[in-house]
């Protein structure tokens, strides 16, 4: 990994010690909601401990500035050593990405009102973009957005439906994305900051899902005549799709960071198991079939670290990094899936039980391959870029 500042390195070390010593014991805490995610009571208890330890929101400095992406990687990987670590340290999605977006686009007034409670760990947030497939709304293709916003005096009125909105239940801050036909929006989308809960936003369903690490689940909801003051528009009218990319590129990479930390821990557990468990006269790790899986894990972990570091460097250079973050998301999520699968396989029956976090990491990583765009969408997008580059090269030769 690229060298980082002494401050960031020290913070990463503090986060690792805190997660391993203080948060790992909470993994057996029974305070969970209907689909297995930690309750807000548990989250706030852990955050109080993080605040006391000086590791709450460690990727944002006291003056409000963010660590570089490479420095953020060092910290977020350590926070991910437990599924509860990102929640305790306030580095979890969607809050981490929402803090990044508000910090880069929000006015001073909006930062004071909506960003401060998030940075201080006093509130959770939700990002309202994805829409139900049966409604014909936006999913991987945001241009299909059907949620609308229209002006009414000094307010905007929003109507529509959203789905898979992580953390909506129990959130206090929302970023709502809606399409507009108003003249000053140029047919684009707008983003609004809203206080939650709001009676105009009705949660219809919070389904049980394969992952269980995010409080509030992934809700489907209806927005009916939600009135938002014009002063709560995030950024400029019609720039919502561009702001979504401002958020999504680093958010994709942050997912890679956190879940790499989780897979590092799962690998540690699998190694310990394989070095202690005996079968056919020797420890499991001495059987090639097992030892080779753990060797593969070590290789894949190194590859993930290098890919994250490379993409972080691109983002730190000032590039939007959409292509690079897509490549990192595909590469890292697929590698982590193999690591998690190897860990389960090495541990056999124990690997599919709740006795360790290995089983949970397998489920979480499977879901990560869909979060922020499934692998296939990113590959399709990259293939289109390859074709454009080829065409440009052919045109240059012809010219």
Description of the structure:
The chain is an alpha+beta fold and 399 residues long. The chain has helices spanning 6-23, 40-53, 69-79, 85-89, 95-105, 108-119, 240-276, 288-316, 322-347, 358-368, 375-398; strands spanning 125-128, 148-152, 155-166, 173-179, 189-195, 201-205, 218-229, 278-279, 282-283. Helix 7 (240-276) packs parallel to helix 9. The chain is globular.
Topology, pairings included?
Elements: H1 6-23, H2 40-53, H3 69-79, H4 85-89, H5 95-105, H6 108-119, E1 125-128, E2 148-152, E3 155-166, E4 173-179, E5 189-195, E6 201-205, E7 218-229, H7 240-276, E8 278-279, E9 282-283, H8 288-316, H9 322-347, H10 358-368, H11 375-398
Parallel strand pairs: 1-4
Antiparallel strand pairs: 2-3, 3-7, 4-5, 6-7, 8-9
Helix pairs in contact: 1-2, 1-3, 3-7, 5-6, 5-7, 7-8, 7-9, 7-10, 8-9, 9-10, 9-11
